[in-house]
Specification:
Helix content: 25-40%
Shape: globular
Number of helices: 7
Largest sheet: 7 strands, mixed
Oligomer: single chain
Strand content: 25-35%
Number of strands: 7
Radius of gyration: 19 Å
Order of helices and strands: EHEHEEHEHHEHHE
Length: 219
């Protein structure tokens, strides 16, 4: 299961990995996203997509060997409920991998820290929780399942890469803060322009950590 598969970027890699003997089910609540995912995975007969969310999965009990969820749980109010429903679908002894950013790990340089904080305070409202990785192991252990590993991947840039996480967040944050009337458009643009200027003068710095929690279901 690829939970919260979005436009299928991971789903197609999973299809390649399992080969013709395996089968992948992508699950997402967005019809637009699953339409894009179907197109991306159109060459693979071993993939299907279903409409659903992490806490109400359209999957039979104990039917999946493995499940993966990337940057989905941070948008869920009832993390424990989503964890329970996901593991309901996994066979005893099966594996679940959950990967989310920890926004408490964010380091982002600015000469205007107050303005930066306004942008981040706004952005923090687009997800339910920015601290899912630190909460997951205890929730898993309380269920009696096993935490096999917790891996951390820190993304650090001292240059503003055109395809990096920072520039993607810059565009999304500027759009989000303005669209939700959290920050004046001129302030958001000034923040955006400052980051471009810092990059041009060699003073840009950005770092954030993504955590991968590997779960083995009891049984």
């Amino acid at each position: 299961m690829d939970i919260g598969c979005g436009n299928g970027m991971l789903t197609v890699e999973l299809a390649r990995a399992v080969g013709s003997d395996g089968y992948v089910i992508g699950i997402d609540p967005s019809a637009d996203m699953t339409a894009a995912a179907r197109e991306r995975c159109s060459d693979y007969a071993n993939v299907e997509f279903r409409a659903g969310a992490a806490n109400s999965l359209p999957i039979e009990d104990e039917s999946a060997d493995k499940a993966v969820s990337v940057q989905v749980f941070e948008y869920i109010e009832d993390v424990d409920g989503a964890l329970a429903d996901t593991l309901r679908c996994v066979k005893p002894g099966g594996r679940l991998v959950i990967s989310d950013l920890h926004f408490g790990s964010l380091i982002w340089f600015s000469d205007e820290p107050d303005r930066m904080q306004k942008m981040l305070t706004s952005w923090n409202q687009h997800f339910v929780s920015g601290s899912v990785p630190e909460r997951l192991p205890a929730l898993i252990k309380a269920r009696g399942d096993r935490v096999e590993d917790v891996l951390s991947f820190t993304m650090t840039d001292h240059q503003l890469k055109p395809d990096g996480l920072a520039i993607m967040m810059m565009h999304l944050m500027k759009q989000y803060t303005v669209a939700n009337d959290h920050v004046d458009p001129a302030v958001a643009q000034s923040w955006f322009d400052e980051q471009l200027s810092l990059a041009r003068t060699g003073r840009f710095f950005f770092s954030m950590t993504q955590f991968v929690v590997v779960v083995r279901k009891k049984g």
